[in-house]
Amino acid sequence: MRTSIATVSLSGSLTEKLTAASRAGFDGVEIFENDLLASPLGPEEVRARCADLGLSIDLYQPMRDIEAVPAEEFARNLRRARHKFELMRRLGAGTVLVCSSVHPLAVDDDALAADHLRQLADLAEEFGIRVAYEALAWGRHVNTYGHAWRIVEAADHPALGACLDSFHILSRGSDPKGIADIPGEKIFFLQLADAPLLAMDVLQWSRHYRCFPGQGGFDVAGLVRNVLDTGYDGPLSLEVFNDVFRQAEAGPTAVDAHRSLLVLQETVGVARPPAPVVPTGVAFAELVTPDAEPVAAVLGALGFARTARHRTKPVDLWQQGEARILVNTSGAARRTGTGLAAIGLESPDPAGAARRAEALLAPVLPRRRAAEDAPLDAVAAPDGTELFFCATDRPELPNWRADFADEADGSHGTDGTGGSHGTGVHRIDHLALTQPWHHFDEAALFHRSVLGLHAQESVDVADPYGLMRSRAVTNADGSVRIALGVGAAPTDDTVHAQHIALTASDVVAAARRFREAGGRLLPIPANYYDDLAARYEFADGELKTYRELGILYDRDAHGEFRHCYTMTVGRVFFELVQRDGYRGYGAQNAPVRLAAQHTARAVTGG
Ligand SMILES: O=C(O)c1ccc(O)c(O)c1
Ligand SMILES: [Mg+2]
Fold first, then answer.
1. Lowest-confidence range among 59-63, 348-352, 495-499, 584-588?
2. Quick one: which atom of ligand 1 is closest to the CA of 168?
3. Which string of DSSP letters, residue by residue, matches 455-468?
4. CA-proximal residue: ligand 1, atom 1 (nearest)
5. Which residues line ligand 1 (CB under 6 A)?
6. How many contiguous H segments (helices) and E segments (strands) does the chain have?
7. How far is it, in rounded angstroms, from Cα 573 to Cα 566?
8. What confidence category does residue 439 fall into, taking pLDDT thresholds of 50, 70 and 90?
9. Tens digit of pLDDT for each residue in 290-305?
10. What interface predicted TM-score (ipTM) does this complex get?
11. CA dihedral 416, 418, 421, 425 (to 10 degrees)
């Protein structure tokens, strides 16, 4: 199906919006009147620009407060409309959206409304223009799509039809099944938006919290199925008023938007991109750092050993059990400091995973590699993290592990097998990636749609300097868990850093060995343990041990969770976790951990 986006959904000048929409692959746009009024380009120039960019102008909007008003007011409205239709003729826009009136003079009189819209359609027809009437959820008298349709039906004019907007319909809890009563050819336009389920004034909800389909709580797909069943053959158009998208760079937002429509079309069965290839595990986490020593010291204390070196690049493989961490000292990190730059995902079909990514607007990254290096595909997540599709030790597929030469003496640092010096770490439990503040919704949609991961509910945790939002994306058996976090505002990432959580069979023993090997654990305030003592009963000495090692504790319906943190190196820290049935991420303890990290930074400056 054709896709379109309202220019109000994107940031920037009208020119920037049009360029972003075109580059993201949209077929057309809705020109939002304020964007045109603010543009130095005249209507004819906008028309030419859209033609150059391959964009149809599918709608001009909004035209407000037209119908069901006293005669002299309506006369003024027709005069206004004539001006707008003249403008639309210059612009080459064939359909105008008329919102149901919120005007104080509007009366609750369907016959009068129908008569006014009929007169408006007569005038529009002179310009070759169609009128799409939309029920605003907060319309003064007309605020449901069923009511708007009854008026359109009563007006009975070929140039008058309905505009359906998923937000106005679903926010009011209207049943989309009633759409079946509208002939497809009388649905002149379909606007789509999702939104988080909020209990608030519907106008504010609409103007600030709309998001792209799949990022909120509405059943947009269900509504679209009802519309398509009528035979509607117009575009799927996104109309999203969202405070974050208004500020974020238009390009990535437009890609996120178009991706949401590609996934929506797949969901309703009108598009069949390559099937998702769900990752089956974490092959490695890759850190970039300008100086390997501080990272090597922490990894060594955590019980990892440097077991191999890349044959052609300055990359070391550190391993313990099935947990693998690459340490890359190439130049990239000189600017950014130590950070988590890439994740290797075990894939049953790396090539198929890359095809899915490409189809959903996540192109395979160009990669500099030596001729003998395995031809690995990687795509960039919205936060820039490179995601590699791996087939570790599966010789029939490109095997990244073959690019590394095992260390001659078996290992450097401590025993890499978790033996006498290992800390009993055996796998990567999860990775926590801090998203740029404006990529939170985009990141969840990306990981869900491109990788086929399941997005869990988001949770808000209190950081001493703002609210952190976090949302986990996981595969079915939990062998891939990525916690996507976003800070309150563009704050110093050092605290809202990336972290690698490592599963240990005994977190107390692991923490003790880490500390004995010179590692520094994040100190946790004594008050936290006093609260734990009040909330739970522990074996003798157990709480004392947790206090001594900075171990945090939580329970859910499925079991217990014990975890502790290292100090931060650059923008990365590590977490040791012991899950005994527990399925969460310790969000209950996040405010204490975040505050402790702020304190640690203040004390150590690191
Ligand atoms: O909030 C508004 O004013 C507004 C304008 C045009 C629309 O299509 C809409 O759904 C809302
Ligand atoms: Mg709308």
1. 495-499
2. 10
3. EPPPEEEEETTEEE
4. 207
5. 61-62, 97, 99, 134, 136, 165, 191, 206-207, 239
6. 19, 26
7. 6
8. confident
9. 999 999 999 999 999 9
10. 0.99
11. 110
